[in-house]
Amino acid sequence: MPSTGPISRTRAEVAALAQDKHERALVSNVISPQDIGVSYDHIGGLEQVKELLRQCITYPLKYPHLYQEGIAAEAVKGVLLFGPPGTGKTMLAKAVATEGGATFLSVDASAIENKWLGESEKNAKAVFTLARRLAPCVVFLDEVDSVLSSREHGDDSSHGTLTSVKTTIMQEWDGLRTTKDRVVVIGSTNRPFDLDEAVLRRMPRRILVDLPDATTREAILRVSMQQNRMAPDVNFTSIARQLDGYTGSDIKEVCREAVVHIAHEQAMRLEQRDARARAGGRGVGGAGA
To answer: Which domain holds residue 37?
Structure first.
């Protein structure tokens, strides 16, 4: 049986699926798989992480008929990506959706909170009800610790609201495990030890996305610069060794600044050439012409 192809939806079609104001507020965060623009090939290194994600999310989304028998039907419904900022967690989540032919629904977890009584819970519920209609769907909860932290790390002033929101999210999440809807939640955090134990149980796959080693840094450099012309003496291995401690995001910015610096130098030379041409033209015509 062939793989299930991605479902393409326009923004208007997504909006038509939203059934209330809480779901409509999420429409701008929805990206169809063909519009995400990030695949595993766009991510340098992290080969082990990508293979883990293929096995626990991409393949079940893409080939659902292979995961219908017995205990295999209890597919992983939650994955936690944790590690320092800028290491590629968001890009990985997008790549998972692209490769699995799934719609990508990105939610800043802190945006779920609302000062009005009961609204936060409705916002949380809307994430899952809309995701079911968009299935196959990858729900990406960025900074998941902001609403799903353990009680000890919470803010006492908002403890009641956060507890209610947490309960709503976990109830909806549990619903995914009792249906055949192809919806997977990926949470990202820089503070995994702040998360509630009950939340961690719903994300049995916890994957560290750490600072890149030298080999991974070189891979990131090569992927970042693959669309640019390079001098033959550029040594990516040597450059990678000098970038110890840099995140993937840092390395991409280094590449961008290097390319832009060259463009600036070329622009300055053109500006000087044009200035000389203008000065020469005035000389021929004379100052009083």
So the answer is: 11-208
**Per residue in 256-271, pLDDT tens?**
999 999 999 999 999 9
Residue 78, both tokens? 């939650």
DSSP state of 4: P
Over range 5-22, report the average pLDDT: 83
DSSP state letter for 86: T
222 and 149 together in one domain: no
CA pair distance 121, 114, nearest whole angstrom:
9
Strand partners, 80: 187, 206
Least Cα distance to 141 among 105, 165, 97, 100 occurs for: 105
Residue 274 located in a structural domain: yes
pTM: 0.82
β-strand partners of 208: 82
pLDDT at 289: 43
Which residues lie below 8 Å from residue 266, measured CB to CB, with a gap of 6+? Answer: none
Specify whether 50 is located in the same domain as 185.
yes
The token pair at 8 is 């393409």
Q: What is the DSSP letter of 7?
A: P
162 shares a domain with 123: yes
List, as own/partner pairs, every contact residues 154-158 make where C-beta atoms lie below 8 angstroms and the sequence separation is at least 24, other chains included. Answer: 158/113
pLDDT tens digits for range 228-238: 998 889 999 99
How far apart CA 169 and CA 171 sit, in angstroms, is 6
The single residue listed with the structure tokens 């967690």 is 89
pLDDT of 127 reads 92
